[in-house]
Amino acid sequence: MNTDITASAKPEYPVIDRNPAFTKVVGNFNTLDYCRFITLAGVSVTVGYLSGIKPGIKGPSMVTGGLIGIMGGFMYAYQNSAGRLMGFFPNEGEVSRYQKRGFSS
Predict the structure, then answer these.
(1) Model pLDDT for residues 14-70, shown as the tens digit of each residue
(2) Higher confidence at residue 78 or residue 1?
(3) From the CB of residue 3, how many other CB atoms can be counted at a distance below 10 Å?
(4) Which residues cross the membrane (predicted)?
């Protein structure tokens, strides 16, 4: 049985870093990643508030929804940023930025 996850899919775009560190991925967040992160967190807070109206637990429900949204939004932004660095998503901006700085994988 093959357990190597890199063998299952080949990058379609230029690879900047095959195994990017956490700080590199977070540092690579772009405006769209932050917008997705904030939108998901905001929608989750709203859904949490609305779902807590009937049972009368608006506050705790809103906080729980917000925490779930923050975690989910961060994971979604992280996935997109890491995918661009590893060459699985379109990454023209990252390629030009890292080539100017002289970084290579």
Answers:
(1) 999 999 999 999 999 999 999 999 999 999 999 999 999 988 899 999 999 999 999
(2) 78
(3) 5
(4) 34-53, 59-78
Q: What is the pTM of this model?
A: 0.82
**Phi/psi of residue 29, each to 5°?**
-55, 135
Burial group, residue 64, by CB count within 10 angstroms (0-12, 13-18, 19+): middle
Residue with tokens 């929608």: 43
> What is the C-alpha to C-alpha distance for residues 88 and 14, in angstroms, rounded to an integer?
9
Please check whether residue 62 is in contact with residue 52, taking contact to mean a CB–CB distance below 8 angstroms: yes
The DSSP secondary structure of 21-60, one letter per residue, reads -HHHHHHT--HHHHHHHHHHHHHHHHHHHHHTTTTT-HHH
- CB-based contacts of 27: which residues, under 8 Å, 6+ apart? none
